Amino acid sequence: MYSVYLLVNHENGASPLRGSIEKAGFTCQCVSDLDILDHPAEEAGGSPAQAVILDLESFTSDAARRFIERCKKTKLPIVTVVGRGRMADFDPSLNPDEMVFSPVAEGEFTARVKQAIFRVNGPTGTNLLRSGELTIDLEKYEVSVAGRRVTLTYKEFQLLVLLASNPGHVYTRDALLNQVWGYDYLGGTRTVDVHVRRLRSKVEAPGRSFVETVRNVGYRFIHGG
Fold it and tell me: What's the first-to-final CA gap in the chain, in angstroms?
């Protein structure tokens, strides 16, 4: 299932809402702010959440607005939880991706979170590879970065898919040449370097890297921002 951050003021108690979330099948980590987004790999055991659940009972409207704005800037789906007794006080200008009323109904909660993720990230499934702002559609042979379509040659696409399918795995130039171009290809490993350089120029930017050079060995895919 999904992993979520439950954004809650610990002094107000998080147990009832956390229990409902976990009962719905989600892995839940309680946090009192969004500093975790600055280094999610270290704080979440290498598995950043797919969505944020914001308990509006825990925070002022100004604080809630800041949390929602930050999630939208980082394209992280956010669902607000509103107590049924305070429905009339809900400020629609907060504009979360989804909202749900507590006590939380298990089936509705699952559907709301999935809907929020879909609204922000689009369809998910085995035909899509994602890493940060990079999305690779294996069925349509399309690549987008931060929602912008990127045009790749077929070999560049094959190279990216191979690397992204095995993040962290170091491929030698010979291995990439054999797997992307074939064993009977007469070109040298310089071909790999040229294609990697062109690929990087299309999908990377300052502060956003996906392909890392392993000196004297080859290349590997790293999760980009």
Answer: 23
